Amino acid sequence: MRYRWQKSRARGRLRRRRQWVAQQEFAAIDLGTNSCRMLIARPLNPSSGADFTVVDGFSRVVRLGEGLAHSGHLSKSAMARTMEALAICAGRINARNTAHVRCVATEACRRATNGAQFVEQVARDTGLKLEIIIPEREAELTLTGCVPLIGAGRDRVILVDIGGGSTEIQWVEVPQAKDGKAGPRTRDMISLPFGVVTLADEFGTGPMSDAVYREILKRMQPEIEQFSARNEIHDFVAAERVQMIGTSGTVTTLGAMHLGLPRYDRSRVDGLTIDFQHIRSHSAKLSELDLQSRAKIPCIGPGRADLMLMGCALLSGVIAQWPIGQLRVADRGIREGLLGEMIREHLPGSHPTRAAPSSSAALSAVATF
Description:
The chain is of the alpha/beta class. The protein contains 17 helices and 11 strands. The chain has helices at residues 2-22, 68-71, 76-95, 107-111, 115-126, 135-146, 196-203, 210-231, 233-238, 249-259, 266-269, 276-287, 291-295, 301-304, 308-321, 334-346, 361-364; strands at 26-31, 35-43, 52-61, 100-105, 130-132, 156-162, 167-173, 185-192, 242-247, 273-275, 326-329.
């Protein structure tokens, strides 16, 4: 009797704990080289700890890494723009009395000589505690956020994240266990030390010449080929065992262009599949346009007009290496990974491998770029 009574009390505590977590809000901020992005969410399914509904979101192009490739440090103007965006995030978090907050910074703060000092200034001015994460941690969070888009039937994934200051490519194994307990895991990864912002700083914003395009592919090729060879990726591709997922402003913008959207709509772009031939076609058309013409295209605008060509060149280098034929578009990544982790940490009995964020109207209007 006493055992049953203790067991009943334990169940009651667990139920109350889950109910408490369901009432909490969790905030995640991803500060990249190009953008500052935030999500605030509430657990949607307390019994799993994986699904959540977004109650607020924010995204702004801040160009924190502007000029970094030449100077080696974050400029005053870039830090001011970023601080303004982070202050908005902090204001929203405080206004909602959000209980749990996790903030990370990636390549720009990793590389800049004054990156750590900027993080300290952010803490003093906004109260937000940014953690500068290594590429492996960045890749882990990105994969966690993208797990819901991994389709069945193929046991390997190439996950491509084209950032502002770096480009990460992961080789992911997807266990086919019937019990579903084993989640996808990264077998190998590379982090190329350039992204859309650093390349635009170097090569400019005009129409892309063949020479610039070849130079970008030349820089990518050695490390990508070594990565492919040591993992025997071409053998897996030939056996039709590989799917490709892309997560970045470049990829989501190409998705919106492919759909002909008059304005960005995450609910239609996230999870979209695009054939490689359409990626090449859209990229070729963009490469012939000047900056002003690109800025007039819906879903690009002035904020991304100068970066799209570099992102398209990087993506073209990836799809040329592995002829899988299709790319799945992911408007998700680090923020969703952080939210999933926090919720599982605070929810007893949650599954350690699931991270399936649920879209909401609050998120649909927040573009990744």
